């Protein structure tokens, strides 16, 4: 009896076999594929808008047999444009059975010359660091955060592996459904709760450590009909859900887990049973890099849109006296707010086209113009003062993001 007090962990072969059964019984994979396919075009478009690179690179962490990756690749290629030369796709998968399955599937599929794909026997923690580490436009994690010893470190490392303007996408299980059963019984049947990890845990890690992220929740469900019938396939599905081999657990404890599945399930009129298990998707953006330079950046082509904007503005109408109410006339300077000001070269290009005649006054003749500046970079804020020209005067300086800034209500 003693050897059946705790269920042993799944070996690689059982893990691969049970995973396939659990995957087939759930809509998690199909809804994740559908969501990711819809995002592929937008991801490419976003990259095109901020970079001249002709290669789009993806790192898929824990790719399994490639179910999601292959569909994601197809979506990328469907949304491809002549602008891109190559889709560089790197998948890392330490499970030999899953890795071989992925490679076999690739052998059976004919992708064109635009795809350069490699499937590597490696763990995420083993990737090169420092000057030798590669960077990617997109780093993808699909249902793998259960297995990291230090998830917070993984998130930070993923952001360092992401190119400027790139994204980290994490697809993971929410606390609803199977995690509710795990929370009640996992420690009792396997002796630990090491693989218990949900989107709630990820959100706790992100809040306070990552400046901004998006979150989407997608509905999914698990067919547990075979589990409730007590079939061999059902026992294997429950084993995968509980991260241990229930076939080697005492029958009384297996019955306890089975009852928990019964209690969690919704029974349909046709007799089939389902447990709702929505998934969550986090999108993290790699923070922009502000170059630390001694001299201000040159005012060249990238600021042409600001010049055009300045030329088109009706400055006379903006500054004439009737644009202010009587109580505002002597209430201090007209205030402007420059968001994401960088080092001020865009503002400088803008101000060159503002028809200001007086070195000390605006067109009203009695109101100076104060410019508040906002940027998360201390370097940018410290350099922008060189680009504030009279009669403009530097106002408040906010070293933060727009979402977190506590602005004066009368700034415009």
Descriptive notes:
This is Methyltransferase domain-containing protein. By secondary structure, the chain is of the alpha/beta class. The chain has two domains: 2-285, 3-Layer(aba) Sandwich (Rossmann fold), CATH 3.40.50.150; 301-398, no CATH class. It has 14 helices and 13 strands. It has a seven-stranded mixed beta sheet, sandwiched between helices. It has a three-stranded antiparallel beta sheet with strand order 7-9-8. It has a three-stranded parallel beta sheet with strand order 11-12-13, with no helix packed on it. Helix 1 packs across helix 9 (232-242), helix 6 runs antiparallel to helix 10 and helix 11 (304-312) packs parallel to helix 13. The model is unreliable at 290-302, 321-330 and 357-366 (pLDDT under 50).
Q: For the residues shown, what is the average pLDDT?
A: 82
- Biggest β-sheet description: 7 strands, mixed
Could you spell the SSE succession in H and E letters?
HHEHEHEEHEHHEEHHHEEEHHEHEHE
Shape: elongated
Kindly provide the radius of gyration, computed on alpha-carbon positions and rounded to a whole number of angstroms. 28 Å
CATH superfamily placement of the largest domain:
Vaccinia Virus protein VP39
Number of domains: 2
The CATH architecture assignment of the largest domain turns out to be 3-Layer(aba) Sandwich
- CATH class call of the largest domain: Alpha Beta
Oligomer: single chain
CATH fold group of the largest domain: Rossmann fold
InterPro entries: SAM-dependent_MTases_sf
Protein name: Methyltransferase domain-containing protein
